[in-house]
Amino acid sequence: MFLQRLKLATRDRHSALERQLPLLDPTLSHEAYRQFLGRFFGYYAPLEARLDVSPWWGQIGLDYAERRKTPGLAQDLIALGIAPAALARVPPCRELPDLASSARLLGCLYVIEGATLGGQIITRHLHTHLGLTPRSGAAFFSGYGAQTGSRWKAFGAQLTAYVQHSGGDDEIIDGANQTFATIDRWLFAKPLQSWSLE
Predict the structure, then answer these.
(1) What is the value of pTM for the model shown?
(2) Nearest-CA neighbor of 69 among 136, 11, 148?
(3) What HEC string does 126-151 produce?
(4) pLDDT in tens, 39-53
(5) Helices 169-184 and 2-20, packing angle to 10 deg
(6) Which of 13, 54, 88, 186 is the most exposed place for a label (fewest CB within 10 A)?
């Protein structure tokens, strides 16, 4: 089954990224969490701008509009005290995954859709340790709420059907690994320039 092959082929990069994430640290502060959300916003905003204009959606058969992550991030940052106008000043990531084919785009989506599953654990942690709910700063990690599991299964079914019909196995794997790598470099490899919260 291709999904199992994809999971195994991306396991090392996925595990390396998860080990560095501080979001389940019991000492995580509100300020550290807010700054980390800003980093995620700096990655997802330019990535989703590219996804929005991708020519591959017809081949994939997926409506991404209802899966966008940037609105939840913006909602969280504003709930945590960031002025809406300051969101435009969040430094954007310039090194994004290659989305030059429908297969590569699917590899990218595998990573960002898969992250909604892990987000359920993070959401519970944020509620327990910081008192946050999806309405008060944890919307991004709550994903699709009660529908997260069913939406992941639906995406997996579409990905499997695409591979069976069109192939592109290696490109999907490469796109997923590149997405993990660019997220990792953006979040951890270099400090971000400062941005005003006002």
Answers:
(1) 0.94
(2) 148
(3) HHHHHCCCCCCCCHHHHCCHHHHHHH
(4) 999 999 999 999 999
(5) 10
(6) 88
